[in-house]
Amino acid sequence: MIKNGIHLNRNNLLIFIIILSCGLMDIFFRNVDLQSLFIYLIDYFVLLIFSFNISSNDFWQKYINIIFFISIINLVFYFLSQFKIFMFLKMYQINNDFFFANIFHVYSRSIEPLINTNIRNFGIFWEPGAFQAFLNIAIIYILLNRKKMNFVKTKLLFLIISLITTFSSTGYLILCCTCILVVFKDFDFKKVNGKFFLYVLFLLICLILLLNSSTIIDKFSNSNQSYIIRNNDFVNGWKIILKHPMLGYGFNSDNLKFMLTSFGITANSVGIFIIMQFWGILYGFFIFLLTWRNFEVSVNAANLFQKCIIFCILLMIFCTESFLTKQIFMLFSYSFCQRLNRNTDIVS
């Protein structure tokens, strides 16, 4: 359907109906957290309306400008913090977490890094691993759509510096994948030249240095607390899914909370597992594949190779953070509207 130059995508309506049906199943037949479920469904409804009224290009232009602004502001606070200069520092409590931050920048989730160690760049997010994901998807779009962007080099410079200061191993790996995505864009063996080999050599050197860096080695050490938690979330999270693989446990249900506690899962950081635990394996794959498909279309992935790399990148993002229940990533369950001729009337 087309009205006022905007394409009302019936597929988006169908997707929302499926999500709403899962929610209604919980409301009538399960003991779930109704407040968080209503918020989740309202979010999806608002995002549905949003998807009808903004094109992919409009969204990315606004998104990148916002992330670019956040990067600049937070780099200032970050570099000052390296000299133990903390501006407007206060302690905030959100649920059971404590953040040392101001309204523009999060310094840490504990007092110890502020005193004794180098501080990582949180941006305005709950951890550096979250900030890197928002930075990386902006970098992906810019690199695949350079001709559509203004001040490309400046924006890339600040985004990449911000990414480096997160000291996120996942962020670094995704950036390497993004570089591969760009270097092998429209790859043609007939056009291989010296410049191409220099790019490949540079990528290999960066990858070797990355894999041998303390950031990566420490992250996958058996003594690393983050690795222990994430490994437990992954292994035992999957065991929980297999106990109710078809319909899951319900949205934040008491039954799910009991299972998480009994398996020693406190963070539940594997995002794709979270929605499988809510409403089953099929629903989890359905949402992930929708997100991947709409994301790669919106960033203008040119070929199968790029689409596969983006698939791997999103898998890394959703296996390390609970992003599939965050609004920005929930939006990619829908396809963006198509801007058409303003004179076009309603067409069925």
Arithmetic mean pLDDT: 80
Task: Please bin the fraction of helical residues.
Answer: 55-70%
N- to C-terminal separation? 5 Å
User: Rg to the nearest angstrom?
Assistant: 21 Å
Which series of helices and strands comes N to C? EEHHHEEEHHHHHHHHHHHH
- Structural class call reads mainly alpha
* Low-pLDDT segments: 1-6, 340-348
The best one-word shape is: globular
DSSP helix count?
A: 15
Strand numbers in spatial order across the main sheet: 3-4-5
Largest sheet: 3 strands, antiparallel
- β-strand number: 5
Q: In percent terms, what proportion of residues is strand?
A: under 5%
Structural features, described:
The protein is mostly helical and 348 residues long. The chain is 62% helix and 5% strand. A three-stranded antiparallel sheet has the order 3-4-5. Helix 7 runs antiparallel to helix 14 (304-318), helix 10 (225-243) runs parallel beside helix 12 (271-279) and helix 12 (271-279) crosses helix 13 (281-298). It starts with a strand and ends in an 18-residue tail after the last helix.
Task: Provide a concise account of the structure shown.
The chain contains 15 helices and 5 strands.
What are the key terms here?
globular; disordered C terminus; two-stranded antiparallel sheet; 5 strands; mainly alpha; 3-stranded antiparallel beta sheet; 348 residues
Task: Spell out the blueprint of helices and strands.
Layout: E1 2-3, E2 6-7, H1 10-29, H2 34-53, H3 56-81, E3 90-94, E4 97-101, E5 106-108, H4 112-116, H5 128-144, H6 152-165, H7 169-183, H8 194-211, H9 214-219, H10 225-243, H11 254-262, H12 271-279, H13 281-298, H14 304-318, H15 327-330
Antiparallel strand pairs: 1-2, 3-4, 4-5
